[in-house]
Amino acid sequence: GINAEYGESEAITSLCLSQDSRHLLVNIGVIQEVHLWDLEKRKLLQKYSGLKQTRFVIRSCFGGANQAFVVSGSEDSSVYIWNRARGSLLEVLNGHSKTVNAVSWNPQIPEMFASASDDRTIRIW
Questions:
Q1: Cβ–Cβ contacts within 10 Å for residue 91, how many?
Q2: pLDDT above 80: residue 2
Q3: From CA 41, how far away is CA 23, in angstroms rounded?
């Protein structure tokens, strides 16, 4: 089996593996970023910032056609969407009234994903 270690400077709160198992999204709470790692090259490829994460576990995921996007919840009640390759923030979606803890992209419909919040709702986008 494969045994490898990938180092981050701060505590890791969650992770998500890409469909092709080559890339890993890692949420770093203290610095409020999501990092994209190349597992084969053991290299940090991209950093996504803007989300708020100081107290809770926030989960991110890949999504869209060819997993071209990164989406994450946030403690500011918003959902953040970045361009996976460029790292640029594309959209901040509002609709929840409390922390958005988790997001999940629909693998069959590339333009659809769901978000779950402390406001006790699930939104389909």
A1: 12
A2: no
A3: 10
Summarize pLDDT for 56-90 with one digit per residue, the tens: 999 999 999 999 999 999 999 999 999 999 999 99
Which residues are CB-neighbours of 72 under 8 A, at least 6 positions away? 27, 34, 48, 51, 58, 59, 60, 61, 79, 80, 103
Q: How far apart are CA 67 and CA 53, in angstroms?
A: 23
Residue located via tokens 């709702």: 121
Q: Rounded distance, CA 21 to CA 111, Å?
A: 22
Token pair 């890791």 is found at 12
3-state helix, strand, coil in the chain (%, to 5): 0, 45, 50
**Claim: this prediction has a pTM higher than 0.70:** yes
Give the Cα separation of 125 and 110 in Å (integer): 11
What pLDDT, on the 0 to 100 scale, is given for residue 1? 52
